[in-house]
Amino acid sequence: SFPTRRSSDLTKMLIKINIFNICIKFNIQNMDSRYSKTPIIIDLGSSSIKAGFSGEEKPSLVFPNIFGEMKYPKAGGLLKKDDKKEIIGNDCLKYMGVLKLKYPLVRGVFNDVEDIEPILDYIYTHLDISLAEMKEHPVLIAEPLLSPKDNRENIAKILFDVHKIEYLFFASQPVLSLYSTSSTSGAVLESGDGVTQSCIIYDGYSIPGSNKRINLGGRDVTEYLQYLLNRKGCELKDSDGFQITKKIKEEIGEIAIDGKNIDIYNNENNKKYILPDDSEINVGDERFLAPEILFNPLLKEYEYPCLPEILADSINKTNVDMKKQLYNSILLSGGSMKMKGMKERMHKEIKKLSPKNVKVRLYTPTNPDNCAWIGANIISSMEISKDMWISQKEWLETDSNIINTRTI
């Protein structure tokens, strides 16, 4: 059953076996020298980026995926002399009203290669890692499934060639999320801000044919809610309005258990929301209708399957013997899974898609948006994980494809 109740020692043994199998599969030799500093874990999310040191209980640095540029030339005087020209992450929150915002990571991918280095510099600075220490810390990157190969290669190039790190490893977010539950087999549906992804993992490996990804997530819910509120007469426009709408979604957004009759929620469940200027708006069925695009993408004219359908499609790519067990072992992870009513609605919809007489069991952790980081923490903390890293020497001596073949 899932979540598994294996002991921590057995879990560590299973993961060690998996990493050992990776080493055998790719004929990895032992490192010439062991790294001397703690690995750094970076989870590249479309909404927020999480970073921290291996061995910590949670990421010590969480910052929004935002770059800011002053809207008005005179507003630049607000910056202190010691502030950097690039306004990144949490620093944007100080000047939110006078900034024009952009998002360097879109759907888990860097739109502009030049945005990669400032993000990495921001992480190293706020983790208090000096230039001399950078190369001594291995880096584990958690990324979405089926991301473009050149995105991974561009990140590796900056880390190896600019920051001169010695060891690097990439791993997919759903696999790492499953590791966070102390299990190495199960079905994972992970929905974040920009991407929803599903895959089947058996004995630590994702089954390639089961990997599914759609560019639909929490950002689309926010955009749709912003559209609905503006249509209602609320002035929530531009990037500032988007950030306010995002807070409205996070605080009072809710998944309707019955998606076909959302109108019934209008009068009974109106919520008043206080805006930053102390004005008040009344949010009715919009707070239910906006998240409904995750179950009915056609509301926003997206020709994607809905979230339950991509999970069922992943499970159906496996053999008949596994399906019953997989429907009983479903992990829901990612920030979008935090919305009120999500688990109940997902269970209802997946049950409709599952074979008859098959029990559907879902598990949502307390912090579903931290699952990938925690899973990366588990494998990077183990002694045997030192054999999985790609070294700078290998990067220089082989073609860049090594980044795309040695991964989980």
What does this structure look like?
- By secondary structure, this protein is of the alpha+beta class.
- 35% of the residues lie in helices and 18% in strands.
- It has helices spanning 8-25, 116-126, 131-134, 149-162, 173-179, 218-232, 238-252, 265-268, 286-289, 307-316, 320-327, 342-353, 371-380, 392-397, 402-405, and strands at 40-44, 48-53, 61-64, 67-70, 87-88, 99-102, 105-106, 109-110, 139-143, 167-172, 186-191, 196-202, 205-206, 212-214, 271-274, 280-283, 330-333, 362-363, 390-391.
- The strands form five sheets. A six-stranded mixed sheet has the order 3-2-1-9-10-19, with helices on both faces. Strands 11, 12, 13, 14, 17 and 18 form a six-stranded mixed sheet that branches.
Give me some keywords for this one:
single chain, 408 residues, alpha+beta, 6-stranded mixed sheet, 19 strands, 18% strand, disordered N terminus
Chain-wise SSE layout:
Blueprint lengths: L7 H18 L14 E5 L3 E6 L7 E4 L2 E4 L16 E2 L10 E4 L2 E2 L2 E2 L5 H11 L4 H4 L4 E5 L5 H14 L4 E6 H7 L6 E6 L4 E7 L2 E2 L5 E3 L3 H15 L5 H15 L12 H4 L2 E4 L5 E4 L2 H4 L17 H10 L3 H8 L2 E4 L8 H12 L8 E2 L7 H10 L9 E2 H6 L4 H4 L3
Parallel strand pairs: 1-9, 9-10, 11-17, 17-18
Antiparallel strand pairs: 1-2, 2-3, 4-5, 4-6, 7-8, 10-19, 11-12, 12-13, 12-14, 15-16
